[in-house]
């Protein structure tokens, strides 16, 4: 009899955990609606944010100026966003020769335009800590693979991936300059762009064990390592290299104080990029840059904030915020006491995780416990203390499991 109850309790526990995984997924699949991510871009002509949104009533795209609410046709919209629709305007012969007295050079438009996006999943995805260091001054039009990779443990080591042997001579040559520059092993991260499909190579930016940033390149088969001077209070958390066509900066630096910087090519100076309240572990960042303005999009659970920055000074010119629509029918905080998951944007690997709900769900748990007691009496069954306590703790999950298996 004791073994029978033990097995029954084990089945109830397993059933509860399974429901805690499946029910929240099913609930959100049925009730959640996709939030609108309205395209927003700062017009260098109208000097205002302009948007493209889908009108559900008219079932068409609405292009308008946020300040004046003027609605534009597609062709008119191209004209007020010449930096974004430059290719279309060039094809139509409508590209302006100057804006606010500033001559629009088509090469500048090409070289100074870029898109940059980072999400928590991008930051936390697992990677193999082996890196490819290209020759930065090869003299060739195309970047060529070096034939080896390097790793950063207690020192830097170059390895032939075919033979798995360490190139002692090359490793020793690089280690000497690491020691000379005061690099502290082990490295916390190395950020580079290991692709041959780029115009040039700027190597890697590495965070050492003392939270200092170093720039590593290979120039004419010799090591180049330079320490980047950091302003007081800047502790780097994450780096992403960006090799723009105009070679104006090297990389983006995210620090522990939730601020964003770029490492400029002007003597490795750090320049802060205003991003409102941006948390790289929770929020998404999108930058759409052109020769006149940088459009900074910070997307979080609360909504989206868009900033327009002067491309030269990086000063905020305009700012707009779109708040997240909160569904009035979101009753999960009253029903689901917790949820079990296995994946998250802030984790590198699959592992069990528990997400707890609101304290309001305790009232629901109490009500479900009373309902279970009533049903048990109606069935003329003996009330088990384990079942009562389990439902009081696990709520709807334990209630369903006990109703099904507690017979």
Automatic annotation (TrEMBL):
Keywords: Membrane, Transmembrane, Transmembrane helix. This is DUF4857 domain-containing protein. It comes from Labilibaculum manganireducens. It holds the Pfam family DUF4857. It comes from the Bacteria. The chain crosses the membrane at residues 7-24, 353-375, 387-405. InterPro entries: DUF4857 (IPR032333).
